[in-house]
Amino acid sequence: MDLYRKVRLACAEGMSQREAARHFNISRDSVSKMMAFSVPPGYRRTAPVKRPKLDAFTGIIDGWLDGDQDIHRKQRHTAKRVFERLRDEHGFTGGYTIVKDYMRRRERRGREMFVPLAHPPGHAQADFGEAVVIIGGVQQKAHFFVLDLPHSDACYVRAYPAATAEAWIDGHVHAFAFFGKVPVSVLYDNDRCLVSKILPDGTRQRATLFSGFLSHYLFRDRYGRPGKGNDKGNAEGLVGYTRRNFMVPIPRFATWDAFNGETLSAIGPRTMVECWRSSAANVRRMSYGASPRRSANASRGIWPLCPNSRRRRLMPAIKPPDGLAPRRWCATRPTITRCPSPTATVTSGSGAMSTRS
């Protein structure tokens, strides 16, 4: 590297390549390469690799591996199994190594790539999770609706006997009432209660009830790829967090209203979640405009953290200092004051919220 720098610097100052080759005791080809690359480029292949023994069988290998996409990953072809089948069924005379190298390069070409996710204010994610509960002395499965705001990490959780279309709508209505505003957009999976059909061009044909709900509240719906839960990882994480922290041990309540936290006699008139929020979630404070990991100028005003904002920006909770505009995370449309249509209401309970610390 030091020789690269010296040669390039000398040539940049007016020394010819012939003179630089003589001065540094290297060939003129080396000088030309140093002028073309600022760092050593390493070995560069000028022609594709030739596999005279394997090239006639690559189509067969590709067919087997493509067929494996519909099979459980633990029963797919390994390089060893591919080599054995080629040898026994097709008379392959090559070695195992070239088969293994070909499969490794093929896997690298088709590997899924990931990019960092950005969560601007005002965009939410929603999902349903499952957990075992005991309601009225009967052990059954609870389906709990979660809605997460990734930018601030504020969240809402509500349980239902079943994940029906009415439960989806009712969960949204209670979440919007709790937050006091309607998000700009919500990201979903392709649940049949929301999407009746995925058209060949990827367009979603929405279910009738959900389509009317979108028209009423006027927010945009977005959808992840089928089978890719990581597209809405915050909602998936909230499902797991709720199950581990609020469903262990198995909850026992007389009614669904009690389970959703309307009243808990053991802790007084406030719900268990409200007590947790007042004692833990909202006691941390930091400067306005700072990230949760480091406080900025304290003289700019103290702002409490919104529920579960461990990693991201704060939600303004009080009037901002003079000259500082609050950070808006939801649409300003006053649509929350409108009542949902009668078909979008269920009577399984009211008023539950769960947050993460």
Blueprint (SSEs and pairs):
Elements: H1 2-12, H2 17-24, H3 28-36, H4 58-67, H5 79-90, H6 96-109, E1 123-135, E2 138-149, E3 154-160, H7 165-179, E4 185-188, E5 195-198, E6 204-206, H8 208-217, E7 220-223, H9 233-246, E8 252-253, H10 256-259, H11 272-281, E9 285-287, E10 302-304
Parallel strand pairs: 1-4, 1-8, 4-7
Antiparallel strand pairs: 1-2, 2-3, 5-6, 9-10
Explain what the structure shows.
This protein is an alpha/beta fold. Among the domains are: 35 residues; 55 residues, no CATH class; 143 residues, Ribonuclease H-like superfamily/Ribonuclease H (Nucleotidyltransferase, domain 5), CATH 3.30.420. The strands form 3 sheets. Strands 1, 2, 3, 4, 7 and 8 form a 6-stranded mixed sheet that branches. A two-stranded antiparallel ribbon has the order 5-6. A hairpin with a 4-residue loop joins β2 and β3. The longest helix is centred in the middle third of the chain and has 15 residues.
Overall mean pLDDT stands at 75
Query: In DSSP terms, counting alpha (H) and pi (I) runs of 4 or more, how many helices?
Result: 11
In the CATH scheme, what's the topology name of one domain?
Nucleotidyltransferase, domain 5
Describe the largest sheet: 6 strands, mixed
The fraction of residues assigned to DSSP E strands is 15-25%
Q: What's the CATH class label of one domain? A: Alpha Beta
Task: Give the tally of β-strands.
Answer: 10
- Low-pLDDT segments, ≥5 res: 262-357
What CATH architecture label of one domain applies? Answer: 2-Layer Sandwich
Would you tell me the structural class of the helices and strands? alpha/beta
Q: Name the helix and strand elements from N-terminus to C-terminus, one letter apiece.
A: HHHHHHEEEHEEEHEHEHHEE
Shape: elongated
What integer value in Å does the Rg equal? 30 Å
What's the helical proportion of residues? 25-40%
Straight-line N-to-C gap: 50 Å
